[in-house]
Amino acid sequence: MNFIEKICGISTNNKQPLVLLDEMTVKNLWNYLQHGFVLIGIRESNCMQKELIKKLQADIIKNDFRYCPIFGCCVNGNGSVYYLSAFVVANLNKAKEPCDFTALRLFADEISVKYRQVSICENSSCTSIISLIDAFFEDWLKGNGLSCLYKGCYLNPSPMSYSERYIRDMKKNEIFINI
Questions:
Q1: Lowest-confidence range among 72-76, 115-119, 132-136?
Q2: How many of the other CB atoms lie within 10 Å of CB of 80?
Q3: Within-domain flag for 117
Q4: 10 pLDDT exceeds 60?
Q5: pTM here?
Q6: CB-based contact 74:84 (threshold 8 Å)
Q7: How many separate domains does the chain show?
Q8: What three-state secondary structure class fits 40?
Q9: Structural domain includes residue 147
């Protein structure tokens, strides 16, 4: 699964698997999140989710923030695996420069009314990121009354070509981790 291909409908040759959000990945991601970040998800668990994710992504890009798509892996009662989609929005602009955290907080307040699933993380540490994201997805499951088992978090794979890197970095403001 690749976020760009699945959600945005942009064709890509990148068929790499999702990247597990573990301690090594978080250390690489921390360079982008150390100035603060916001977790934003969609409260919908139906077919409307894909369209809402596209709108949320457009809102993030329009407000000039960098983001990283994240996927919460869940298993339901019959053993089927599915992924919840969300974004880690960094307090960085398109040029990868830190912003005033107030701008990100105001954006999060505005978005929370529209999408109803926001968690603000102004001053966290590198070691707390995984637990913050895990709690975010577990709260999502509880908030939707689902008894699914949360299994972990994954990131979109790194670009495999220059054109994909250009689209994801320059056009879509995406943060990706090279592992």
A1: 115-119
A2: 9
A3: yes
A4: no
A5: 0.87
A6: yes
A7: 1
A8: strand
A9: no
Q: How many residues does this entry show for the chain?
A: 179
pLDDT in tens, 58-99: 999 999 999 999 988 888 888 888 788 889 999 999 999 999
Cross-sheet strand order for the sheet of 81-93: 19-20, 149-155, 65-75, 81-93, 37-41, 118-121
Q: Which domain holds residue 46?
A: 1-6+18-124+158-179
Q: Which DSSP string do the residues of 142-154 spell out, in sequence order?
A: HHTT--PEEEEEE
What integer pLDDT is reported at residue 174 of this predicted model? 93
pLDDT above 60 for 56: yes
Would you say residue 113 lies in a domain?
yes
Whether residue 52 lies inside any domain: the answer is: yes
| Site of tokens 């064709």 | 11
Burial class of residue 144 (count of CB atoms within 10 Å of its CB; 0-12, 13-18, 19+)? middle
Kindly report, residue by residue over 97-106, the tens digit of the pLDDT.
999 889 998 9
Residue pair 67/173 in contact (Cβ under 8 Å)? The answer is: yes
Angstrom distance (rounded) from CA 147 to CA 74? 10
Looking at residue 18, what is its pLDDT?
83
Please state, in angstroms and as integers, the Cα–Cα distance from residue 8 to each residue in 24, 51, 128, following that order.
28, 9, 30
Tokens of 19: 């990247």
* Cα–Cα distance for residue pair 149/79, rounded to 1 Å: 10
